[in-house]
Amino acid sequence: MSLDFDTHFEPAYGQAVPIAEGIARLTVNNPSPYTFHGTNSYIIGKDTLAVIDPGPEDDAHLDALIRTIAGRPVSHIFISHTHRDHSPLAARLKALTGAVTVAEGPHRSARPLLIGEGARLDASGDTGFVPDLTVADGQVVEGDGWRMGTVLTPGHAANHAAFSLEGTGILFSADHVMAWSTSIVAPPDGAMSDYMASLDRLVERDDYVYLPGHGGPVVSPQKFVRGLKAHRKMRERAILERIIAGDRTIPEIVGAIYRDIDPKLHAAAGLSVFAHIEDLVGRGRIVSDEAPSLGGHYSPA
User: Fold this and answer.
1) Exposure of 160 by Cβ count < 10 A (0-12 exposed, 13-18 middle, 19+ buried)?
2) What confidence tens digit (pLDDT) does each residue in 54-78 have?
3) Buried (b) or exposed (e) across 260-269, using 16+ Cβ within 10 A?
4) Which member of 29, 44, 154, 214 has the lowest number of beta carbons within 10 Å of its beta carbon?
């Protein structure tokens, strides 16, 4: 199944972009190879508001959020996950508005840490964030004229959640599904087995459109998610084929599979390969003489 990415997006930094009735998008000016044009924050409601993913520490973005809020009460701040481009500004926005912060939980690894992985986990995550309200899968939070359902989607991060604006067919998919690119799944933050299971969950839903954490909307989302699954399976097959052919290390596999990408992105590609390798080891498709790691050696089962 083909996977067509949509990279057409106007970030309109500092401006609230109307998306649908009662929904506006503000994009942080933090572009990068991993954030596309920047992180999207969403403002929900008309009278009493909710904010989804206020973003990183950024004074200009906080000013834009406050201008858009325009003195209206903010009852809730929803956090999809605690990577540093999504959640850190929640503390200052909460202090200014008194809103309740809502999330699946604090930052954590997807599995027990190996030696040396703690520093990488801390570097990627907003470890100081603790939600006021911890939500479970399927839990609904009610506001003024809106109801937000929780759809837990671990994979990109262990505490990743999507939020469904009930009765609209709109799912705020954060970094789990984006129109412009595949999601990064990088241990120990995330796990490929969790990510694939979360894709399966979304295929079973009947959402009309996804509003992601970076870039523009995902239309025909079930078709797109099926394409993502096929893409990941294709990447898995390529990794398995390289190991069968004799590659034993992640750098060897990255050099063969990602030969056409910018070498600056090879480290990220290595983490993606590592995520697939962890999953393949867990399913008994390949073997390692020790716990899977970035420096490990792998062979066919």
Assistant:
1) buried
2) 999 999 999 999 999 999 999 999 9
3) eeeeeebebb
4) 29
DSSP annotation of 47 reads: S
The pair of three-digit structure tokens given for residue 125, joined into one six-digit string: 């995550």
pLDDT score of 1 more than 70: no
pLDDT of amino acid 262 = 80
C-alpha gyration radius of the chain: 19
Read off φ and ψ for residue 282, nearest 5 degrees: -60, -30
Within 8 A by CB and 6+ apart from 19, the residues are: 25, 42, 211, 217
The domains located in the chain, with CATH, are 17-228 (3.60.15.10), 230-300 (1.10.10.10)
> Tokens 């500004």 map to which residue?
89
pTM of the model: 0.96
Determine phi and psi for 232, rounding to 5 degrees. Answer: -65, -40
Q: What's phi and psi for 75, nearest 5 deg?
A: -90, -30
> Which DSSP category does 132 fall into?
S
